[in-house]
Design goal:
The protein has 346 residues and is α/β, with parallel strands linked by helices. The chain is built from twelve helices and 18 strands.
Length: 346
């Protein structure tokens, strides 16, 4: 089968490799769509402690069940599915309480296991047993269903933030993650969502999400001053940092209201994650600061439901589609900021 194999940092080759075998209790998925995540690009360009080349990346996957392993129950060949990629051990305290993304022995498809930038992908038995294979609702395309995974991560990130009717929210970063966060905040009743970015085209896209969205180009205006001005000096109730920029974390603490909440959703590159937060702002303003990592199988099912019901239209975020041999064109489109979401079709 064809697969895009990461051979080393900055080296990805589309080549023929053996098709994976289905293990007892596992599943093989014929991949129909796999979206490029920012973490795929960071892994390719900078490496990851969780990836040992050669590795097939890609964890935002939708496809058709091609084969089921001996002893696999509840699934049939031909079913359209997505796969929640972050797989816990299933037995630790975190897994027993349903927060599998916090498992100390977490393993993820596209990182510790080969992922979806291939014609066929193996799903481990423990993923099947823990409910990570989710059927795609009728009417949702493979391309749209692949976006359930990043949406699920946003659902997880907002689970700490208690966004309520009439509250104000700021989202720093208007990529697809920031726009998903914006839509989720609006669904929860936020009265205004300030979306901050430096790319005019992304801000134009954000502006289409409704009259309660206020866009700020941080190349043209200081976002902290702008938000304080528009909130009577109070700041916003919630800030979500949806970009991998350290200074944005500090800006979040400056623009959040007293007793507000901040989500450091966007991870920073290795070696560049320290020295940005003013702890006195956290202390004296009594700010709650939260991290966010991956998502659970249940959150992936909720994301599919939201997409299938049309509460969030995934199609509007898919700006580029490439066949597998052209995957590096997709990577470059992400790097240049030309794309919101790139879909690879093996």
């Amino acid at each position: 089968m064809k697969a895009a194999v990461m051979k080393a940092v900055n080296e990805m080759v589309v080549e023929e490799i053996p098709e994976p075998e289905v293990e007892p209790g596992g599943i093989l998925v014929e991949v129909k769509a796999c979206a490029i995540c920012g973490s795929d690009v960071r892994t390719l360009r900078h490496g990851s402690a969780h990836v040992t080349p050669p590795r097939v990346l890609g964890h935002e996957v939708a496809g058709i069940i091609k084969a089921v392993g001996l002893g696999t129950s509840g699934y049939s060949v031909g079913e359209a599915v997505t796969v929640a990629p972050a797989i816990g051990c299933g037995v630790c305290e975190y897994c027993r309480h349903g927060i599998t993304n916090m498992c100390p022995n977490l393993e993820t498809i596209g990182f510790e296991f080969d992922g979806g930038f291939a014609e066929v992908m193996a799903v481990p038995a423990k993923a099947v047993q823990q409910g990570h294979v989710n059927r795609i609702p009728q009417g949702l395309s493979f391309e749209e269903a692949a976006l359930a995974e990043p949406l699920a991560c946003c659902i997880n990130g907002q689970s700490f933030l208690d966004i309520r009717l009439g509250q104000t929210v700021a989202v720093i970063g208007a990529g697809v993650i920031g726009l998903f966060h914006t839509e989720l905040a609006l669904l929860k009743g936020a009265s205004r969502v300030f979306v901050i970015d430096i790319v005019p085209e992304r801000l134009e896209h954000a502006a289409t999400l409704g009259k309660n969205v206020v866009t700020i180009n941080s190349n043209e205006a200081d976002p902290v001053e702008e938000i304080l001005s528009q909130t009577g000096g109070q700041g916003v109730d919630v800030v979500i940092v949806a970009c991998p920029v350290g200074e944005a974390q500090n800006q979040a603490l400056q623009m959040v209201a007293r007793r507000g909440r901040v989500s450091l959703f966007g991870g920073l590159p290795q070696g560049k994650s320290k020295g940005y937060l003013d702890s006195n702002l956290i202390h004296y303003k009594e700010v709650g600061v939260f991290g966010a990592h991956a998502s659970t199988a249940a959150q992936n099912r909720l994301a599919l439901k939201i997409l299938a019901e049309g509460k969030i239209a995934a199609r509007r975020y898919i700006t580029h589609t490439y066949p597998l041999p052209q995957i590096m064109e997709g990577v470059r489109a992400v790097e240049k900021g030309e794309a919101l979401k790139v879909i690879i079709k093996p």
